[in-house]
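Changelog-adjacent note: as of this version, every example in the card shows the full chain rather than a window. The one below runs 85 residues end to end.
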Amino acid sequence: MDKLHVTQDAYGYWMLSLEKEDGTLALVAHQFETAEKVIEIANEMVREQKVNAILIVDPPRSTPGSDASEAQVDYAKPAPKKAGA
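Full-length structure tokens:
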């Protein structure tokens, strides 16, 4: 079964990654300030049968010591990531 991973990137933003059964990862959504919207997107994908997956959510962690405006300037699209990694 596929897995949907809700994790934080290096800037503290929340993202959604899809892990296929063969272990490949794909970034589905990124740059959310809270996990709620990302979880909602993941649940909608499962509910609408766009994916047959389980949802794995990392606990929140503190963000690196940069302010939000600096993070916006330096922000780069993250690589997909597994929860717990």
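Structural remarks: The beta strands are 2-8, 14-19, 25-32, 53-57.
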